């Protein structure tokens, strides 16, 4: 029997985690959450999620970027480095129209996708589905 | 400042001067380099980045005056001191006008040289410190705006997120008046979020930073890209978007990101205040010095008495019948601020009931 894919939500805003969880569950995903970057890093290794939803600004301005970079490049995460990551942020100029991830520029590796908060449930589920099918 | 000893470059065609300066300065704890003419001096400035340069005014080849002119361009923070062999007041004054920090008339004593160098180094230290502080301040300000933006938006976005989840029916069926009321609440929050965005944009538009990013841009390409992005919104409102293309590139000197924002605001106004089956036409015209972009709509127009005020912050034209205001009242002030940072100009003409035309003039590269 196929088990349902596991999604890790890393966000310091409890309301975001609470709002997003029923949406993911309604699409039959298993949901685990982390309230900060450190907890996120630990759960990525212990839970081995199938996909990560990642906030950008948590303890510091660019927490999410460093975490994403670590997962994709650091040897510590070699086992899970192909886990798709969707970055989600409320700060327009980071994920918004004027901003595009320039891969390999300054050695930064961007996420697999990104979305602005608030996310439309249908859009979120479609993007997750697309990445999981890859 | 670095721990390294300050480097003084001596540019003089007279070997005696180069040697004596070198000896005095080495004894006083400086590092020195020498060049025997202007061209070699400029090469060493580029290559070594000295703290100070001693420049003889009268040299074969590139003169000391020319070295001063070049120095301003290649390394404006290096402090130049000129050595004037023929100690006339005129040449010293001329050298100071061209950016020399001080002058040293030949012959000079070791003490005179040390004193002038000491003063010049203090000056250099202050300049570098001021520069470092200015940069730090810019970074802090940028981060501050980003933090404020995050703090203001986060709670609103969390509320929006709950509405989205409820409206998606994830917490149970939702319909009728219940749904309608949540939709209205969401629209008002949308308005507040746009207001915060616009206000932060206005705070973030910094003339100096825009000018730093200037480069030649094909404005027609920028407009084509924007029209592509905005077409869905226009179609939703039943408004046709047209661009009167011209052949070839239409170059202006500007910052792409802020210009995109300015034209987004103008075009989205032209869509928003249009009538159904209306049209937005964008046309380009240029002369040798500038390019004009006209954004013309077939909308409700603006009465004469309002025209001088529409670029003011928070000024909004109230419609007859007290219809709901659609904007934040900041869109056009943002446009004006961006255009003026580009040394451009914006004009508007309007015929109530027929439409308005906004014309933005931007300088050529």
Structure description:
The complex is a heterodimer of chains A (134) and B (365). Chain A is an alpha/beta fold. Chain A has helices spanning 14-26, 37-47, 63-73, 92-95, 121-133, and strands at residues 6-10, 30-34, 51-55, 85-89, 113-116. Chain A has a single domain, classed as Rossmann fold (3-Layer(aba) Sandwich). Chain A is built from 5 helices and 5 strands, in the order βαβαβαβαβα. Chain B is an alpha/beta fold and 365 residues long. Chain B is 50% helix and 19% strand. Chain B is built from 10 helices and 12 strands. In chain B, strands 2-1-3-4-5 form a 5-stranded parallel beta sheet, with helices on both faces. In chain B, strands 7-9-10-12-11 form a 5-stranded mixed beta sheet, covered by helices on one side. In chain B, β9 and β10 (290-297) form a beta hairpin. Chain B is elongated and about 95 Å long. The A-B interface holds A 13, 15-16, 19-20, 22-23, 26, 57, 61, 90-94, 97-98, 117-122 and B 143, 146-147, 149-150, 153-154, 157-158, 160-165, 168, 170-171, 197, 229, 257, 260-261.
Q: What is the CATH-assigned architecture of chain A?
A: 3-Layer(aba) Sandwich
CATH topology name of chain A, in short, is Rossmann fold
The beta-strand count of chain B equals: 12
Poorly predicted runs of chain B are none
Q: Find the structural class of chain A using helix and strand composition.
A: alpha/beta
Strand order of the largest sheet of chain A: 2-1-3-4-5
Oligomer: heterodimer
Main sheet makeup of chain B: 5 strands, parallel
Instruction: Decide which structural class fits the backbone of chain B.
Output: alpha/beta
**Biggest sheet strand line-up of chain B:** 2-1-3-4-5
Rounded average pLDDT of chain A: 85
Count of structural domains of chain B: 2
Largest sheet composition of chain A: 5 strands, parallel
Note the gap between the termini of chain B.
38 Å
**C-alpha Rg of chain A, in Å?**
14 Å
Identify the CATH homologous superfamily of the largest domain in chain B: Histidine kinase-like ATPase, C-terminal domain
Number of helices of chain B: 10
């Amino acid at each position: 029997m196929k088990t349902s894919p596991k999604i890790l939500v890393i966000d310091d805003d409890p309301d975001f985690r609470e709002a997003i969880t029923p949406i993911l569950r309604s699409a039959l995903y298993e949901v685990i959450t982390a309230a900060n970057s450190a907890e996120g890093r630990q759960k990525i290794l212990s839970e081995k999620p199938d996909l990560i939803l990642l906030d950008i600004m948590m303890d510091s301005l660019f927490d999410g970027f460093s975490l994403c970079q670590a997962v994709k490049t650091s040897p510590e995460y070699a086992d899970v480095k192909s886990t798709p990551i969707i970055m989600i942020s409320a700060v327009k100029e980071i994920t918004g129209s004027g901003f595009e991830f320039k891969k390999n520029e300054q050695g930064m590796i961007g996420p697999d996708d990104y979305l602005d908060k608030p996310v439309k449930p249908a859009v979120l589920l479609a993007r997750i589905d697309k990445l999981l099918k890859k | 400042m670095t721990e390294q000893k300050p480097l003084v470059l001596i540019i003089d065609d007279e070997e005696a001067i180069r040697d004596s300066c070198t000896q005095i300065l080495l004894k006083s704890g400086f590092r020195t380099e020498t060049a025997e003419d202007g061209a070699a001096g400029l090469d060493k400035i580029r290559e070594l980045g000295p703290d100070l340069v001693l420049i003889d005014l009268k040299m074969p080849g590139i003169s000391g005056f020319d070295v001063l002119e070049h120095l301003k361009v290649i390394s404006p923070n290096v402090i130049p001191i000129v050595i004037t062999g023929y100690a006339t007041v005129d040449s010293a004054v001329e050298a100071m006008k061209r950016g020399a920090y001080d002058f040293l008339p030949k012959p000079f004593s070791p003490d005179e040289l040390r004193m002038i160098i000491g003063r010049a180094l203090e000056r250099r230290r202050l300049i570098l410190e001021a520069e470092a502080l200015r940069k730090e301040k810019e970074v802090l300000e940028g981060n501050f705006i980003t933090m404020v933006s995050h703090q203001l938006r986060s709670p609103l976005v969390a509320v929006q997120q709950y509405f989205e989840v409820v409206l998606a029916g994830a917490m149970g069926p939702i319909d009728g008046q219940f749904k309608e009321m949540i939709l209205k609440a969401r629209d008002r929050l949308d308005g507040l979020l746009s207001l915060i965005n616009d206000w932060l944009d206005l705070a973030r538009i910094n003339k100096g930073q825009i000018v730093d990013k200037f480069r030649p841009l094909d404005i027609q390409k920028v407009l084509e890209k924007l029209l592509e992005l905005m077409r869905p919104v226009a179609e939703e409102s039943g408004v046709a978007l047209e661009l009167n293309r011209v052949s070839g590139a239409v170059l202006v000197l500007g910052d792409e990101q802020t210009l995109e924002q300015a034209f987004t605001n103008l075009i989205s106004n032209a869509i928003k205040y249009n009538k159904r089956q209306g049209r937005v036409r964008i046309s380009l015209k240029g002369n040798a010095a500038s390019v004009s972009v006209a954004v013309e709509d077939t909308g409700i127009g603006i009465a004469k008495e309002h025209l001088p005020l529409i670029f003011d912050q928070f000024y909004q034209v109230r419609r007859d019948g007290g219809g709901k205001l659609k904007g934040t009242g900041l869109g056009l002030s943002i446009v004006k601020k961006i255009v003026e940072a580009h040394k451009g100009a914006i004009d508007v003409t309007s015929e109530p009931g027929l439409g308005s035309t906004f014309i933005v003039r931007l300088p050529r590269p």
